[in-house]
Each structure stands twice: as C-alpha cells, then as structure tokens.
Amino acid sequence: MKILIWLLVAALLIAHQDWWYWNDDTLMFGFLPIGLFYHACLSLAAGAFWFLVCIFAWPKDLEEDFESKTATGEKQ
Q1: Which of 8, 34, 42, 47 is the most exposed place for a label (fewest CB within 10 A)?
Q2: Alpha carbon distances (Å) from 16 to 10, 41, 45
Q3: What is the gyration radius of the CA atoms in the chain, in angstroms?
C-alpha cells in the first residue's frame, strides 16, 4: 500500500508540470483557459487522493495510543 501511495504522489508531481498547455489558447466553457482548468482538476484529484489516503492508510496505532492515553487521563 505504501509503495502505491508513493507512486501516485510521484504521478501527481509529474502531472503538475504541465508544459503541454503553456501555449494553448483553448478556452473551456467559453471563458476558462485550459491551463487553469487543468490545474483546477489536478487540485481536485490531489485533494481526493489525500482524503482517500487519510481514510485507508492512516496508521491505526496512533489513534489507539491517543485513545488509550485519553481514557486513562494521561497528558499528551
């Protein structure tokens, strides 16, 4: 799972370097430059990716340790 996450992070980093839209005058929806649209979609994809990473790859031992300390009244 960890290797898959790192590969997807690398893919997002590579996708962020969008040299292919620098000289493109195409407008999306009639007003939005394609480069800006691309970055908006990339930002949404990155946000969704990190949301899923937090849900599926969050270390459970951190939460268990925190919950056990708060249940016994220990200070952090």
Answers
A1: 47
A2: 10, 11, 11
A3: 20
